[in-house]
Amino acid sequence: MKVLLNNASLFEILRPFNDLGFVPTMGGIHKGHLSLINKSNKFCKKTIVSIFVNPKQFNNKKDLKSYPQNIKNDLKILRKSKKIDFVYLPKFNDIYKDKNKSKIKLHKKDKILCAKFRKGHFEGVLDVMDKLTKIVRPQKIFMGEKDLQQLYLVKKLLEKKYKTKVIACKTIRDKNKVALSSRNLLLNKSNLNVAAKIYKKLINIKKNINKNKNISDFLNFHKNKLINIYKIKIDYLELRNKNNLKISSRKKNSRLFIAYYLNNVRLIDNV
Ligand code: AMP
Fold first, then answer.
1. Containing structural domain, residue 72
2. Half-sphere CA count of 151, side-chain side, radius 13 A
3. Closest CA to 44 of 137, 134, 128, 127
4. How many CB atoms sit inside 10 A of residue 250's CB?
5. Residue 16 in this model has a pLDDT that exceeds 90
6. Which of 139, 169, 199 finishes a domain?
7. Active site residue 33
8. What confidence tier does 52 reach under pLDDT thresholds 50, 70, 90?
């Protein structure tokens, strides 16, 4: 596993490879990231992982400051997996040396779910993914369905602009079915117990969706119930088509999306 610390060494070393799988991350490596790496390893001859905590996608300074970062530990886990050829650890200037302001804007119809609650977040994500793709030039990029809205927007942008394919990977969960996330490191045991209970409730709510009901009233009722039982703040609880993210009224091809706060940590999931 070769560690690439700047763009010059990356360009030099990656030049000969034309079957490259790319797993972009912000570190805090967990089994969710490793599942993406495994998939890349299966589909591509070489796998490159990047670790870059992109300040431009944080709409909240406190959130950026508390974001779990431990490069030493991440490298240890990645090395141990024996599945990675290259790790790219860019500095801010490797990504943003071109000081021109990004022209990436979200379409009005995409200002839904997290985009409504985190102003500028996806513009930051799309900008960094555009820049990383231009630098790394991978054949395939592997991304997680846990962040389905991110996957949807990135796929739409990159597949139009580059030859790169964006491949969706299943959400990996802990033994209590809580979706793995680097942010879970900021939760205590009791928070994680609540997250596990909320997952169970989501599965039940989805099971009880019935196209004859008024879905919006039904979900509003359950949203308020979750708020009251667990004393949490919920940004949204919505049923949407998993392929185009349009509001849906039936279970088929749909996901129930939630964003909520535990211990001031914002968690998202879809089931
Ligand atoms: P992050 O480091 O949180 O920016 O995530 C990097 C990539 O890992 C993104 O494509 C995420 O969707 C993906 N990812 C994060 N958590 C999970 C998970 N629990 N299961 C599958 N993929 C995940």
1. 2-169
2. 21
3. 137
4. 12
5. yes
6. 169
7. yes
8. very high
Cα-to-centroid distance, 269 and ligand 1 (Å): 11
Average pLDDT over the chain reads 96
Among 38, 251, 246, which residue's Cα sits nearest to residue 144? 38
Residues 143, 68 share a domain: yes
Within a domain: residue 265?
A: yes
Q: How far is the CA of 170 from the centre of ligand 1 (A)?
A: 10
Spell out the residues 6+ positions from residue 40 whose beta carbon is closer than 8 angstroms to its own.
21, 22, 23, 47, 83, 140, 142
Residue to substitute in 22, 29, 33 for testing ligand 1 pocket (most ligand atoms within 8 angstroms of CB):
33
Mean predicted confidence (pLDDT) in 236-259: 97
144 Cβ neighbours under 8 A, 6+ residues apart: 32, 35, 36, 151, 168, 169, 170, 171, 172
Q: Is the pLDDT of residue 100 over 80?
A: no
Closest alpha carbon to 256 in 215, 225, 227: 215
